UniProtKB/TrEMBL annotation:
SMART domains attached to this UniProt entry: RhoGAP
Protein name per UniProt: Rho GTPase-activating protein 19
Entry keyword annotation includes Aminoacyl-tRNA synthetase: no
Keywords noted in UniProt: GTPase activation
PROSITE patterns hit by this protein: RHOGAP (PS50238)
PANTHER family registered for this protein in UniProt: RHO GTPASE ACTIVATING PROTEIN 18,19-RELATED (PTHR14963), RHO GTPASE-ACTIVATING PROTEIN 19 (PTHR14963:SF7)
Molecular functions (GO terms): GTPase activator activity
Residue segments, region Disordered: 295-322, 338-370
Gene giving rise to this polypeptide: arhgap19
Length: 370
């Protein structure tokens, strides 16, 4: 009888969904947020995130979270050290780091962005403004679930570091605790990362110190968003809403703008009908003269519908803009598996375009991949 009950309990838990070691989802984030919320009320505990908790209590708490149940952490059954250690365990057991394998080399490159001296030579002083901008762009490319949890986590660590006089946990101390769990590639040892450890630790400390700025889009991205979102549905996520700020709320135009838009649409429609009428006229000198006038002033031809297999204009435009800002003014297209870099160059004088194909190394390919 006892065995049957144990089997039944295990089956029920599996149906509800295990979050530890599973793919990151919004449901999993909702469960883990209970830990983050509790820790936010216990920031003064000395050695928070450094001192390990009780393993038996942690296992009990893990099972509750895996079952999908809510847990009241304010009862005193669990110590903040238990909760802090379990949060790190959850991050460490994700199938891939929170910052993703794909962006690992990009973070190493961002750490290398430094200022130049008056002679144009690189210095050892970090260019914090450029690093911040690069990270803002990189975080826009994260999967939504990763981005959501990262924002919650960095805010918690930022608030923790603000209380370092009490808890003895500075941004760098916290970075040492979390770098292995959120950026280290899976199945790699500290010895294999030896050359990059300082970069990684300093990089995570930078994220913690500047967390309140990292999820804001650069000004030129916001300007670009205003143009793209002006004729589309209102974005749904909070981050997209930040991009949308200042663009106006769709569906609530002012009276003047409504009148102007209506008048403009009416004029364009009338011009299209007139052009269609002229096009249907028999061939004559008068028709040719009218066609020339239309060509001179700009024929109001309807836009052709977008092909169904074409990518969405907004995402394509944002991707191109972000890559230009991260990789520079030269647009580089990497052919998967070809080992060839195709560089597009545009002649500003005559508008002509040329392409140059050059071999690239594996290391270059990894560092350019975002």
């Amino acid at each position: 009888m006892g065995t049957n009950r144990r089997c039944k309990t295990t089956h029920t838990t599996k149906e509800k969904g295990v979050i530890f070691g599973a793919q990151l989802t919004e449901e999993g984030i909702a469960q883990i947020y209970q830990l983050i919320e509790y820790l936010g009320k216990n920031l003064l505990v000395e050695g928070l995130f450094r001192v390990p908790g009780n393993s038996i209590r942690q296992q009990a708490l893990r099972e509750i979270l895996n079952s999908g149940a809510d847990v009241d952490l304010d009862t005193g059954d669990y110590h903040p050290h238990d909760v802090a250690t379990l949060l790190k365990a959850f991050l460490g057991e994700l199938p891939e780091p929170l910052l993703t394998h794909r962006h690992y080399h990009a973070h190493l490159k961002i750490a290398e962005i430094t200022l130049f001296d008056e002679r144009g030579n690189k210095t050892s002083v970090p260019n914090k403004e450029r690093q911040l901008e690069a990270l803002q762009l990189l975080f826009m490319l994260l999967p939504p679930a990763n981005r959501s949890l990262l924002k919650l986590l960095l805010d918690l660590l930022y608030q923790t570091a603000k209380q370092q006089d009490k808890n003895k946990m500075s941004a760098f101390n916290l970075a040492l605790m979390f770098a292995p769990h959120i950026i280290w590639p899976k199945n790699v040892t500290a010895n294999d990362l030896q050359d990059n450890l300082n970069k990684l630790n300093n990089g995570i400390a930078f994220l913690i110190k500047h967390s309140q700025k990292l999820f804001r889009a650069p000004a030129y991205i916001k300007d670009h968003a205003r143009m793209l979102f002006s004729g589309s549905e209102t974005p749904q996520s909070k981050d997209d809403m930040e991009l949308y700020a200042g663009a106006g709320v769709r569906g609530l135009p002012t009276k003047r703008s409504s009148e102007e838009d209506g008048s403009q649409l009416h004029t364009q429609e009338a011009l299209r009908e007139l052009f269609q009428h002229v096009s249907n006229m028999p061939e004559s000198t008068k028709k040719k003269k009218l066609i020339r006038q239309f060509n001179k002033q700009g024929t109001p031809v309807r836009e052709s519908p977008r092909a169904s297999n074409q990518k969405h204009g907004r995402s394509r435009s944002f991707g191109g803009l972000i890559k230009r800002k991260v990789l520079g003014n030269t647009v580089t297209n990497e052919r998967a598996g070809s080992g060839v870099c195709q560089t597009k160059e545009v002649n500003k004088e005559n508008g002509s375009t040329s392409f140059t194909r050059t071999p690239i190394s594996t290391e270059q390919h990894s560092s350019l991949s975002l």
